[in-house]
Amino acid sequence: MPVRKFLGGFIVLAALGLGACVGPTPYGPATDGFGFTEQAIEEDRYRVTFSGNSATPRETVENYLLYRAAEVTLERGHAHFVVVKMDTERTTTYHGSVNDFGGPFGFYGYRSWYDRPYGFGGFASLDAHPIDRYSAYANIVMRKGAKPDDPDAYDARAVIERLGSRIDRQPS
To answer: Which pLDDT does position 170 carry in this prediction?
Structure first.
């Protein structure tokens, strides 16, 4: 077996193996575009975001966003926050592979795995698979005192308590 053919097959298998090991984005500061960020807009107003990879479900992205908003609120000495605006965006990319049945009668001739095929005509099909990624953001206003009777207001401590068990933190 030629060494190049063996190495080529090994590289493909290794890439597939690594791709299969990708898990959901853990909760933590953004690295490589995935994770949370916050930006001060005014003294008591922030924009909080959370972006997940393709293995992170929408619900997880939204939970992590609210959890981070609660953390930011408590870190700044406030008791509750009001969501002024919130949105979740889905980005879809398509990845695919070509199933090739080429050559004069549906066959390709190969001299080796790295050579281009010879032959003419034939058939091909494309298998495309959608891959979704979710990003969520919220503009929040932080306040002290008791939470008002407003469906857009969240008690920061209650959010931390209720969502805390669902938070998968980055390894230290």
So the answer is: 73
Q: Which residues pair with 18 in a beta bridge?
A: none
pLDDT tens column, 84-139:
999 999 999 988 877 765 554 444 555 454 555 555 455 667 788 899 999 999 99
Are 60 and 54 within 8 A, CB to CB? no
Collect all residues with Cβ–Cβ distance below 8 Å to 93 and sequence separation of at least 6.
130, 131, 133
User: Is the Cβ–Cβ distance between 140 and 115 less than 8 Å?
Assistant: no
Number of other CB atoms surrounding residue 28 within 10 Å: 17
pTM: 0.73
Place of tokens 């002024």: 84
Of the candidates 172, 75, 76, 89, which has an alpha carbon nearest to the alpha carbon of residue 138?
Answer: 89
Count of beta carbons in the 10 Å neighbourhood of residue 137: 18
pLDDT at 128: 83
What is the enclosing helix (H) or strand (E) of 142? Answer: strand 122-143
- The 3-state DSSP class for residue 65 equals helix
Domain boundaries, the chain: 3-166
Burial of 13 (0-12, 13-18, 19+ CB in 10 A): exposed
Phi, psi of 73 (to 5 degrees): -60, -50
